[in-house]
């Protein structure tokens, strides 16, 4: 256990942890809300990114990457919608991808674990 992972250090970041939980909930609700809540989560994650440290910082990075990846799926979906509805499949895959990443991140956060590779494409 490093100095940044001591229980005292984790208690000092309870505000960041609460915001990270709220962000994951916004991400999970953002897909059915047509992305409005994702935009709010993205702004909140960017605001806290530079101020957060250690294991919580990995969650904010993961949230930012998840939201930008979801936006990429939306853009590719729009660009390919005319190809026999391929865009619909891209959107569906993107929605599932965002939801799974949101759920995986939330579980890791609630368990008090950092995200092992927040910049990875998968989970």
TrEMBL record:
Organism lineage: Bacteria, Pseudomonadati, Pseudomonadota, Alphaproteobacteria, Maricaulales
Residues passing through the membrane, by range: 20-47
The entry's keywords: Membrane, Transmembrane, Transmembrane helix
Protein's UniProt name: DUF4870 domain-containing protein
């Amino acid at each position: 256990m490093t100095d940044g992972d001591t229980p005292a250090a984790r208690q000092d970041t309870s505000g960041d942890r609460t915001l990270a939980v709220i962000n994951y909930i916004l991400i999970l609700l953002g897909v059915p809300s047509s992305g409005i809540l994702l935009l709010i989560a993205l702004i909140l994650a960017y605001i806290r990114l530079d101020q957060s440290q250690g294991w919580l910082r990995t969650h904010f990075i993961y949230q930012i990457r998840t939201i930008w990846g979801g936006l990429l799926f939306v853009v590719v979906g729009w660009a390919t919608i005319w190809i026999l509805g391929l865009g619909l499949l891209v959107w569906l895959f993107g929605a599932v991808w965002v939801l799974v990443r949101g759920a995986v991140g939330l579980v890791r956060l609630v368990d008090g674990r950092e995200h092992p590779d927040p910049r990875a494409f998968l989970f």
